[in-house]
Amino acid sequence: MSEASLYQALRKRTAEKAARFHMPGHKGRAAYDLPSNIFSIDYTEIDGTGNLYEGDEPILSAERHAAQTLGASDCLFLTGGSTLALQTAIASAVPAGGSLLVDRGCHKAVTHAMALLDLTPHFVYPSTLPTGIPGPLSPSDVERALRAHPEASALLVTSPNYYGVLQDIPALAELCHRYGKLLLVDAAHGAHLKAVYGQSVIEQGADLAAVSTHKTLPALGQSAALLSSGRIPFDTLLQTAPVFGTSSPSYLLMASIDLACAWLDDEGEQAYRACADTVRTLRTEIPRHTPFPVLSERDAALDPCRLTLCCQGTNVTGDELSAILCREFGIDAEMSDAHHVVLICTGMDQPRDYARLMGALKHPQFHRVEEAPADASAPALPHPVRVCSVREAQFAPFVSIPVEQAAGRICARAVTPYPPGVPVIYPGERIAQVHIEFLRRECYTKISEICVIDE
């Protein structure tokens, strides 16, 4: 057998025994028993296994159980992550060629759905928290958008976002339904919220919600679910999903969703509530005993299991802190940017993981510096001007040019620092110098070139 380099690299990372504050939510630990020979349950659509897109048993019973556990009327298992769930939700709710109100903080997967369906986006910009994190949408801004664009079929928002900020789903749902629109939620990072709060975004009023079961639950990577209030028929979801997804969905991934939900029904719910208690304590203890502030409930409504460290006013950037935590302390963060380090906490983390994190943040190499001047706070996301449709730009001939030469050109591919995967510029928007400065200032140095329409 050849070296199998990817497999060997994964085994090497496992042997390092790092504290995993990143997805998948299982954190490398088994919450339930699987066969020692995992290949033995890797099936296809044959008698007795069912067909995902036909609503067959035994998949349908597993989906109905998951709907009850995750807080929805209907649940569709998917094996293409929340990308597939979002595309299915959008296509089910908005006719091709239609328009959609969009939280500007949405994931880049939304741009691909817009291009494929030739949708016109009308953006609602979130507020900006002091360190530059996208905050909640203003209900008054949403209502203005609903009045200005009566042709829009739905509003799509992200809750929680990558940093853990939650939207006021009940208020947004009331507004949407008052104006006869659907509310779609990218809740990719919120599959655990029902276990913590006792209420899901569907139960709060959303019509469809994409959840990545692999991000915060102990399910395998790429596993996801589309939750529904029932306002859109389940048959519509079944017929729409295969337009975007594989015709050979993984039974291993679907089984992991089923098992994760069964675990939640038993000890899992308590594990997530304990996780939320621990994160609440850390949000108090970290600013008190280390140089690092944290994003807290004083800043915005937050996911109880997301821990976001702030680095402004310290001697390190977020990217530097993340690298040091990994290199020197064996702690792997989910993501970092110029000002933050984001840690995903789940019911699978252990006390020793949190102790390792706290010990690292107390290390004397980290310290406060003079407070940054007021104008040093991260800038808000610039508002670009649309020149052509997302679809036209996405499929137009394009060239790749250095970032510094892109001012004045029309974006052909979403300019998306990843993570968090939120486009700074959408296809079809004109790139201005302010966008280039934003990219540079926020240390998104990995983006050295931008694809623009070949004019």
Describe the protein's architecture and organization:
The longest helix is centred in the middle third of the chain and has 39 residues, at 251-289. This protein has helices at residues 5-15, 59-70, 81-93, 109-117, 139-148, 169-178, 193-197, 213-216, 234-244, 251-289, 318-329, 351-361, 390-394, 433-441, and strands at residues 19-21, 74-78, 99-103, 120-124, 154-158, 182-186, 208-211, 224-228, 306-310, 331-333, 335-336, 340-344, 385-386, 398-402, 429-430, 449-453. Strands 2-8-7-6-5-3-4 form a 7-stranded mixed beta sheet, with helices on both faces. α6 links the parallel β5 and β6. It starts with a helix and ends with a strand. Helices cover 35% and strands 15% of the residues. The radius of gyration is 22 Å and the shape is globular. The model has no long low-confidence stretch (mean pLDDT 93). α3 crosses α9 (234-244) and α5 (139-148) runs parallel beside α6. It has 455 residues and is of the alpha/beta class. It has 14 helices and 16 strands.
